[in-house]
């Protein structure tokens, strides 16, 4: 595998993610959904920037540890929005389903690259980005289930991943 192949794939895929999340953020009327989609768009920009830097950095591990965390961002929003009724208008939930499919595809694609990679820098980046995409998937699932069926959400694993949403 050449570096260019992973780089081209990652930049293209992350760009598609940014575009999707920006579109979903602009279309949803739900404040929690807006915050989630804008935060995810920002993180996809970070991922694209990191893949570009990976091939010139001497230590990719240092770069990936200085990135923001989706759960931290949403928790800060949640705490500031406690007095708002975040479920008042859940908006169109199909965007969440589309976004979850995209995140699952990214995890699978990056896993495939990881299995073929012989570069330590690539492997560090790929392991990190897979975990990040899993966090994105968790975030989408949490908000989707919270907005679509709170009774099930409180009983399922989603409520245990981000238990601060139970308060």
Question: What's the SSE blueprint?
Answer:
Elements: H1 3-27, H2 31-54, H3 60-64, H4 70-80, H5 94-116, H6 120-148, H7 150-155, H8 158-161
Helix pairs in contact: 1-2, 1-5, 2-4, 2-6, 5-6
Structure description:
By secondary structure, the chain is mainly α. It has one domain (3-53, 92-166): Ferritin, core subunit, four-helix bundle (Ferritin, Up-down Bundle), CATH 1.20.1260.10. Helices cover 76% and strands 0% of the residues. It has eight helices and no strands. It is elongated, with a radius of gyration of 17 Å. The relative contact order is 0.15.
What fraction of residues sit in β-strands?
Answer: under 5%
CATH architecture descriptor name: Up-down Bundle
Major sheet size, sense and barrel closure: none
Shape: elongated
Query: Helix-strand pattern, N to C?
Result: HHHHHHHH
Question: Tags for this entry?
Answer:
167 residues, mainly alpha, Ferritin, 8 helices, 0% strand, elongated
Briefly, what is this?
This protein has helices spanning 3-27, 31-54, 60-64, 70-80, 94-116, 120-148, 150-155, 158-161. The protein is an all-alpha fold and 167 residues long.
